[in-house]
């Protein structure tokens, strides 16, 4: 019989390497493969399944909405879309929302917004300062914005208008600012590179610099937003508010949706400037509103902060060179290049972790993770890390 992996080799473009497992169902922090094996999932679809797998409230909301209205396009109003926008704005900062389908698209919207804002307010300035090692998506503009050559170089020529500086180096931002600069775009915690939190004071200084120089501050909270770091949004740890914030990943509880929020200063889009056929359709918005509701009802932001502390403490005795993170966004780095075999050994032992490179393991579990599940994960990791 042809296996799923053989079919994938034949029919799917080989854009990434997959681990040798085929998942068929999930519940809470557990997911099950096609042989019925159970896995404790500390990756959550790469920081997506905030409420775990197939949360009953999300399933019910999606079923109900699917039975009423799935899609209309943005030629018309729909209630789920405006209700979601209102809730996101109430939870974050005075702003308006544009909905799309992914993190990359949310960042594309932010980049286009910044360029239009620069044309109107800064004599056509269009350059965006971003950081080396950041990750903002895989479209041409966002892959250029993310300062990782391995992802962008094969696709040259790349779009103009991105200047990269070292993360957590405020002076470098100051030095890179010119008359052409329009915005600074940052992740409050760099995720994809292996969880690098902003240093104390960094975001505050950048905010002050943007105010002083009349630049926009764009924060990419695609991975850090919605409770992941133990606050609704990671920038709240730093006591700053961005002009533009992007969200995706966890927003729809697994249903694809992205959002770009802009404050009145930055919100320069006019009818015809931007759009998306699927963006903010009723199905995705109903799922997302339910995710926000459950996070709030079940106190999952505080829970993530508490479980983040426990998870962090449990990583201390794995013999790692460094442990770093914020809330339920943690990573540890081995001295030796053993992250990939470690990931594979964990998988075989029924635990899902994510090797971001040869040395570092990233953990971005569902916010509903329990102390018992942390103990279970720790027992496996301790046995295999030695
Ligand atoms: C911080 C950040 N921004 C943007 C993206 C891109 O999101 P998507 O894969 O939904 O386009 C990611 C994905 O990992 C991310 O971590």
Give a description of the structure.
There is one protein chain. With 386 residues, the chain is α/β, with parallel strands linked by helices. The chain has two domains: 4-55 and 299-385, Alpha-Beta Complex (Aspartate Aminotransferase, domain 1), CATH 3.90.1150.10; 69-297, Aspartate Aminotransferase, domain 2. 37% of the residues lie in helices and 18% in strands. The chain contains 13 helices and 17 strands. The chain has helices at 4-11, 44-47, 56-68, 79-91, 103-121, 140-145, 149-152, 170-176, 202-213, 282-297, 300-314, 339-348, 371-385, and strands at 23-27, 30-33, 38-41, 96-100, 127-131, 162-165, 181-186, 189-190, 196-197, 216-220, 244-247, 258-262, 322-326, 329-333, 351-352, 354-355, 360-363. The strands form four sheets. The chain has a seven-stranded mixed sheet, sandwiched between helices. Strands 1-2-3-15 form a four-stranded mixed sheet. The two termini are 38 Å apart. The mean pLDDT is 97. Pyridoxal-5'-phosphate binds at residues 102-104, 107, 135-137, 187, 191-192, 220, 222-223, 248.
Query: What is the number of helices?
Result: 13
CATH architecture of the largest domain: 3-Layer(aba) Sandwich
What's the overall geometry?
A: globular
Write down the CATH class of the largest domain.
Alpha Beta
Count of distinct strands: 17
Q: How many domains would you count in the coordinates?
A: 2
Helical content, roughly?
25-40%
What is the C-alpha radius of gyration, as a whole number of Å?
A: 21 Å
Question: What is the topology?
Answer:
Blueprint: H1 4-11, E1 23-27, E2 30-33, E3 38-41, H2 44-47, H3 56-68, H4 79-91, E4 96-100, H5 103-121, E5 127-131, H6 140-145, H7 149-152, E6 162-165, H8 170-176, E7 181-186, E8 189-190, E9 196-197, H9 202-213, E10 216-220, E11 244-247, E12 258-262, H10 282-297, H11 300-314, E13 322-326, E14 329-333, H12 339-348, E15 351-352, E16 354-355, E17 360-363, H13 371-385
Parallel strand pairs: 3-15, 5-6, 5-7, 7-10, 10-11
Antiparallel strand pairs: 1-2, 2-3, 4-12, 8-9, 11-12, 13-14, 14-17, 16-17
Helix pairs in contact: 3-10, 4-10, 11-13
Bound molecules: pyridoxal-5'-phosphate.
Pyridoxal-5'-phosphate (PLP) is lined by residues 102-104, 107, 135-137, 187, 191-192, 220, 222-223, 248.
């Amino acid at each position: 019989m042809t296996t799923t992996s053989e079919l994938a080799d034949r029919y799917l473009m080989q854009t990434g390497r997959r681990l040798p497992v085929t998942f068929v169902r999930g519940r809470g922090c557990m997911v099950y493969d096609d042989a019925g094996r159970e896995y404790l999932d500390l990756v959550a679809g790469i920081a997506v399944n905030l409420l775990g797998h197939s949360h009953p409230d999300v399933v019910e909301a999606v079923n109900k909405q699917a039975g009423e209205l799935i899609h209309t396009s943005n030629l018309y109003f729909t209630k789920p879309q405006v209700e979601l926008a209102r809730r996101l704005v109430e939870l974050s900062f005075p702003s308006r929302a544009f909905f799309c389908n992914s993190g990359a698209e949310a960042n594309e919207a932010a980049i286009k917004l910044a360029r239009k804002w620069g044309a109107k307010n800064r004599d056509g300035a269009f350059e965006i300062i971003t950081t080396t090692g950041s990750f903002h998506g895989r479209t041409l503009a966002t892959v250029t914005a993310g300062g990782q050559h391995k992802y962008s170089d094969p696709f040259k020529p790349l779009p103009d208008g991105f200047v990269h500086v070292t993360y957590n180096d405020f002076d470098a931002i100051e030095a890179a600012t010119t008359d052409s600069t329009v915005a600074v775009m940052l992740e409050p915690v760099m995720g994809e590179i292996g969880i690098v939190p902003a240093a104390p004071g960094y975001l505050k200084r950048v905010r002050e610099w943007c105010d002083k120089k009349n630049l926009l501050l764009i924060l990419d909270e695609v991975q850090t937003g919605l409770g992941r770091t133990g606050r609704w949004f990671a920038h709240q740890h730093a006591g700053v508010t961005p002009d533009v914030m992007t969200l995706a990943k966890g927003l729809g509880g697994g249903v694809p949706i992205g959002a770009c929020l802009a404050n009145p200063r930055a919100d320069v889009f006019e009818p015809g400037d931007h759009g998306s056929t699927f963006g903010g359709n009723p199905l995705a918005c109903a799922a997302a509103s339910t995710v926000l509701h459950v996070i709030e009802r079940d106190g999952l932001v505080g829970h993530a902060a508490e479980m983040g502390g426990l998870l962090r403490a449990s990583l201390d005795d794995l013999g790692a060179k460094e442990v770093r993170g914020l809330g339920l966004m943690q990573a540890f780095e081995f001295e030796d290049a053993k992250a990939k075999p470690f990931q594979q050994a964990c998988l075989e032992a029924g635990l899902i972790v994510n090797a971001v490179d040869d040395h570092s393991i990233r953990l971005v579990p569902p916010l509903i993770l329990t102390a018992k599940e942390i103990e279970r994960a720790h027992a496996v990791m301790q046995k295999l890390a030695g």
